[in-house]
Structure formats: C-alpha cells, structure tokens
C-alpha cells in the first residue's frame, strides 16, 4: 500500500535534517499461527488418522506394548497373569473332576491327582503356585494322572513365556532412550549474528549429566511449505542444513555446552532471507542431537525446533564457561542469555554482493560504543564535580564564624567564638 499524503503541507513541515530519525518496527499483516512440526519438548506434532490396517500393530506386540501409556501397560500386565492363572485353574479343576477328586463319596485309598484340590478356589491357588513357583506345600501333584503332568509342563512353559515378554516390556519401557534425552537441553532461542565475517545461525546445546554422550551428532533441518515448478505443493519439505562441526568431523565432544553454528552461505535455505523477511516466513528449524549413552550403551535422541518468532536477529550467546581455582565452571543460569551485537539487517546474499555493508555496520557500532563511553565518562566527571562542590559547601557551612563585640568605650573588639 502507498503511504497516505500528509495533511500538513510540505512547506510547513519540519526539515528531515532537524528531526532525529526514529526507528520503528516494520508492521506486517497478522500471520496465521502455524502448527509446529516438532514441539519444544521434542515430541512430534503429528496425528495419524484413517488407519485401516490396525492388525499391523499386533504383528509387533512388544513395540506396541512399549509405546502404550503406562496405565494401559500395567492393566495389560496384570490382566495377562490373571487370565493365565484362571485358565489353568480351569484345567486343574477339569483334571480333578475327571479323576473324581471332587466327588465327596470317592473310594478310600484312591490318591488324588493333586492333593487338597477339592474346589475351584483350591485349583486357582494351585495354579498360582505352579506358575510363580511359590509352593506352600499344602497342594502338590501326584503320579496318578499323566494328564496332570502334561498340564504342569504346559503351564510352566507358557508361564515362562509370559514372564519373559511382560518383564521385558516393562524393562524396555523404563529404560527407553528418550529418558536420557531429558538431561540434554537446548537454548530457548536461536540467534543470527556475524561470526568470522559471515552471517551464522547459532544455537546452544548442553548436557546436565556428568556421564557423556559418545559419538554425539547434531543435525539441522529446515521444514517449510514449498511449491515445485510443476505446481506440486509439498507441505513438509525437509532441507538438510550443514553445520561447522559436521564439516570438520562426524561428531562433537559434548563435555561442556557448545554453540552449534551454521554458516549461511549460498547453499543454505536462509541465504535469501533478511531480518524482515525472516519474520514473515513460515519456516521451522529442527535440531536433532543423537548419540550413545556412555553408561548403558543405548542410543538416544533429543529434538527441538525453532520457529521464526524464536530466532533473534543480531544477538549472540553470552559465555557461561569460566575457570575458577583450576576447575572449569559452567553457569547454567545464563544458558539461554543473549546480548545484542552489531549485525546487518540484510540477507546473506546482499552481504556477499556488498561487503561494505558489514564494514559500515561495524564502524557505526564502534562509533556508538565510543560515544557511549564518552557519555559515561562525562557523567562520571559531572557526578564527581557535584560531589566535590557539595563537600565544599558542607565544609564552608561548618566553618566557625567571627563575632564582633563592642567595648564600653565604643571601640570594636573582635573575638572568635
């Protein structure tokens, strides 16, 4: 839109040279809130709908049980054992019924298949004793029934399988790799600033535990909606982004918090974006940290993402690692703190085409820094002069005054009191 003409005529308006420039933030149209592909916690913001082949989940029972929520896993765990005990209790009751052990008028001297199994309740208790190998001693199997021996062997085998599957699922659920990722942290904001005369996209990662992540690798991806020249719309177009650590080696040494830097060059998807255009774009930068846990040897992965509102242009992370009494100390209270630095507002492409923009920006920053130092020095001088003047006034007020006395002869007599 073209700006409206001023109501005041130009000849009565103030000269631009007399008016100090006021830097105003550019006003953009309201952008519809875009759904995040990856949440800040690392969870994938993806919903699966209209899955017709639900039976595929039953083909991998272990993974399905591990992926379930804890309340469903515990219910399935309890119901599996309870149902197996009830099933084999029914088998023991049928064995006892077929042998006549439940008949109160059975012949004396005829030994039971299972001693002291006279009802379904006693059969259920014997089923629990067999499967969990408690063995209280009140009920036991005899040699009278080969069928009972077969049921005993079958229950032992099935019970071992159930124990292995259920306990294995519980162990895998408690030792999942994403539990270790809870102590891998990312900075809340990402920054774009000049490093080594190049515009760079930077984030900070850290590990709160002393046990290290072996072979840690950080990958960056830019996700945005794109349209191909043929007119095909790709809602989630993933573009790999190269980092400095990936160029030098395949892994990082995550001993202390590190700043992961991506140089915005001609191969970067951020190459044509300026500070204003970045705020209007719908891109999302996904950060993936992968490695092997040193203590368990299990692979782990931590994820997060940064939308345009979480990318600060012209900021830099403050240092948090200091040396204190021969030990390197990390202050995690300043983990996400940034400081504003001189950074051109143009895109990396414009900066490559006109290197003088960077020089002018740095020179202006140096001049403003010198001016601020001069103002501070002048203010300190003024404050010191005011303090000296006030001290002199106080000293003069405390000085002893001279009092003049008149003698009877009328001559003056000066005395100091």
TrEMBL record:
<dbReference type="InterPro" id="IPR016449">
    <property type="entry name" value="K_chnl_inward-rec_Kir"/>
</dbReference>
<feature type="compositionally biased region" description="Low complexity">
    <location>
        <begin position="380"/>
        <end position="395"/>
    </location>
</feature>
<dbReference type="InterPro" id="IPR014756">
    <property type="entry name" value="Ig_E-set"/>
</dbReference>
<keyword id="KW-0813">Transport</keyword>
<dbReference type="GO" id="GO:0034765">
    <property type="term" value="P:regulation of monoatomic ion transmembrane transport"/>
</dbReference>
<keyword id="KW-0633">Potassium transport</keyword>
<feature type="domain" description="Inward rectifier potassium channel C-terminal">
    <location>
        <begin position="184"/>
        <end position="354"/>
    </location>
</feature>
<dbReference type="GO" id="GO:0007399">
    <property type="term" value="P:nervous system development"/>
</dbReference>
<dbReference type="InterPro" id="IPR040445">
    <property type="entry name" value="Kir_TM"/>
</dbReference>
<dbReference type="GO" id="GO:0015272">
    <property type="term" value="F:ATP-activated inward rectifier potassium channel activity"/>
</dbReference>
<dbReference type="Pfam" id="PF17655">
    <property type="entry name" value="IRK_C"/>
</dbReference>
<feature type="transmembrane region" description="Helical">
    <location>
        <begin position="74"/>
        <end position="95"/>
    </location>
</feature>
<keyword id="KW-0812">Transmembrane</keyword>
<keyword id="KW-0851">Voltage-gated channel</keyword>
<keyword id="KW-0630">Potassium</keyword>
<feature type="region of interest" description="Disordered">
    <location>
        <begin position="367"/>
        <end position="395"/>
    </location>
</feature>
<dbReference type="GO" id="GO:0034702">
    <property type="term" value="C:monoatomic ion channel complex"/>
</dbReference>
<dbReference type="InterPro" id="IPR013518">
    <property type="entry name" value="K_chnl_inward-rec_Kir_cyto"/>
</dbReference>
<keyword id="KW-0406">Ion transport</keyword>
<dbReference type="InterPro" id="IPR041647">
    <property type="entry name" value="IRK_C"/>
</dbReference>
<dbReference type="GO" id="GO:0005886">
    <property type="term" value="C:plasma membrane"/>
</dbReference>
<dbReference type="Pfam" id="PF01007">
    <property type="entry name" value="IRK"/>
</dbReference>
<feature type="transmembrane region" description="Helical">
    <location>
        <begin position="148"/>
        <end position="171"/>
    </location>
</feature>
<keyword id="KW-0597">Phosphoprotein</keyword>
<keyword id="KW-0407">Ion channel</keyword>
<protein>
    <recommendedName>
        <fullName>ATP-sensitive inward rectifier potassium channel 8</fullName>
    </recommendedName>
</protein>
<keyword id="KW-0472">Membrane</keyword>
<feature type="domain" description="Potassium channel inwardly rectifying transmembrane">
    <location>
        <begin position="38"/>
        <end position="176"/>
    </location>
</feature>
<dbReference type="GO" id="GO:1990573">
    <property type="term" value="P:potassium ion import across plasma membrane"/>
</dbReference>
<keyword id="KW-1133">Transmembrane helix</keyword>
<feature type="site" description="Role in the control of polyamine-mediated channel gating and in the blocking by intracellular magnesium">
    <location>
        <position position="163"/>
    </location>
</feature>
<dbReference type="InterPro" id="IPR003278">
    <property type="entry name" value="K_chnl_inward-rec_Kir6.1"/>
</dbReference>
<comment type="similarity">
    <text>Belongs to the inward rectifier-type potassium channel (TC 1.A.2.1) family.</text>
</comment>
